Amino acid sequence: FAETMRLLLAPRGRLGCIVPTGIATDDKTKAFFQDIMASRSLLSLYDFENAAGIFPGVHRSYKFCLLTLVGAAEPVQQGATFAFFLHRVEELQEPERRFTLAAEDIALINPNTRTCPVFRSRRDMQLTKAIYQRVPVLVREGSAEGNPWQIRLRQGVFNMTSHSHLFRTREQLERDGWQLEGNIFRRGAETYLPLYEGKMIAHFDHRFATIDDESAGDDKDFRETTSEEHANPLYSSRLRYWVPHFGVKKRLNDWNKQWILLYRRIARSSDMRTFFAAVIPQAAAGDTSPILLFSEGLVSLAPALLANLCVYVLDFTARQKCGGIHLDFYLVKQLPVLPPERYQQPCAWDNNLTLGDWVRPRALELSYTAWDLAAFARDCGYDGPPFRWDEERRFLLRCELDAAYFHLYGIARDDVDYIMETFPIVKEEDIKRYNEYRTRRVILEIYDELQRASETGQPYHTRLTPPPADPAVAHPPRSS
Fold first, then answer.
1. Closest Cα to residue 169, out of 158, 181, 178?
2. How far apart are CA 136 and CA 40, in angstroms?
């Protein structure tokens, strides 16, 4: 309809219509949006959520926009005007809600698709634009040097619908004589590997969720893993399904490591966090947990790549891309991610180390908390036991990484404060538990300490003590 109306538009005419917001943000309509931006035909696009019931018979989460185009004889001179996440027409009168983007700005932020990023405010737009001027996208298509990590994205290993005939439940396997070791089923030389679903992982945590043993049938419920379960390095999450090992190897024939980096596909910009990534042992992954394969020559930097994907500043930019509930490949490719060569450079707050040497042990300690990731630790240069699960220590490790990446992305202190305020659910949970926004406070404190170290040349002094030895994890299980 939009294309037909545009064809009917007189050279000096104007067109106003109500269409789904996806006309500017979806990959399937990118050609149309690219053309109206390149030809300077787009005058304004005002995006609304139907939360206030503007259209009573339409679902309250539905997103639509007021699209205004101009004729070819009167092209727009200063870029198109945008506003997003509006609920009422009156909000258009708020200057901070409106901003201008030219085709060049959109090409900077979304160079592959040229689709429209989704900003809640003018400040969000300015911050995001500044980030992309300093940090390249993960994969820039059409450029010989545009994929420094040599990223290959896979839609999981198995489709949860079309491959369901390959899945077996615990009850089915045990009935056929298979024995469960950890979360792998074995029978003689044969094995069935667990099938991970997106909801099972969180930042640096492949054991975030587990099956509730009290639920029954094929529709077993997941629950969060307890601190006591996390503290046991032999504990493995219980899963819903298992698949044959040979099927996994066949589908991952170009990746010979015993671990996989993946992320959650189901995501919303309004959730507590938007982008979740973790390393799991070699296993099956459903289509809700896409896989990021990369150059085997960069495996030792895997913890650094994972750290970058888990920090707040990356999450902030992901929220400007996620207009729906899926983080699809075309969105992930256009996230700003530090290139691997950056980790070979000196660390600004400790000149005795490279940046990689500073980031790697922190991200590795956060990830390697169970024996089933021993192969990952070895590939990253560590041959010791898993690190003890300590909630307070993990909080400080993550705050150090968040503060560091705010510096690496060139974010000023006031903007760090602002970005942390864009995570209201994190703030609410902190206030409930600590009577303050503790996460923001500690990140800002460490941010200041890193800044002083960079300016004075005195190495940053971490608040962390060396991780304590734990006799309980001194020896791996027999089957590892």
1. 178
2. 26
Q: What type of residue sits at position 348?
A: A
3-state secondary structure 182-233: CCEEEECCEEEEEEECHHHCECCECCCEEECCCCCCCCCCEEECCHHHHHCC
* Separation CA 81–CA 99 (nearest Å): 6
Instruction: Return the structure tokens found at 73.
Output: 């004889």
Nearest to 139 by CA among 158, 168, 115, 112: 112
- Rounded alpha-carbon distances, angstroms, from residue 333 to 151, 222, 318, 321: 9, 30, 11, 11
What's the whole-number mean pLDDT along residues 129-143? Answer: 96
Whether 151 and 292 have beta carbons less than 8 Å apart is answered as yes
Q: What is the mean pLDDT of residues 121-147?
A: 95
Query: And the tokens for 99?
Result: 């901003």
Radius of gyration of the chain (CA): 24
Give 353-372 as a DSSP string: EEHHHHHHHHHHHHH--SGG
Section 9-20 average pLDDT: 95
* Cβ atoms within 10 Å of 424's Cβ, excluding its own: 11
> Taking 70 as the threshold, does the pLDDT of residue 215 lie above it?
no
pLDDT over threshold 70, residue 218: no
Q: Which helix (H) or strand (E) holds 73?
A: none
Question: Between these two residues, 13 and 154, which has the higher pLDDT value?
Answer: 13
Percent of the chain having pLDDT more than 90?
73
Number of Cβ atoms within 10 Å of the Cβ of 91: 14
Nearest to 196 by CA among 210, 215, 185: 210
pLDDT on residue 48 = 95
What is the C-alpha to C-alpha distance for residues 464 and 397, in angstroms, rounded to an integer?
8
326 confidence band (pLDDT: 50, 70, 90): confident
Total-model pTM: 0.90
Query: What does the alpha-carbon distance between residue 386 and residue 377 come to, in Å, rounded to a whole number?
Result: 9
The pLDDT of residue 284 is 83
Lowest-confidence pick of 215-219, 304-308, 340-344: 215-219
Q: What are phi and psi of 279, to 5 degrees?
A: -100, 135
Cα–Cα nearest to 114, from 103, 122, 101, 99: 103
| Residue 385 DSSP code | P
Question: CA dihedral in degrees (408, 409, 414, 417; nearest 10)?
Answer: -90
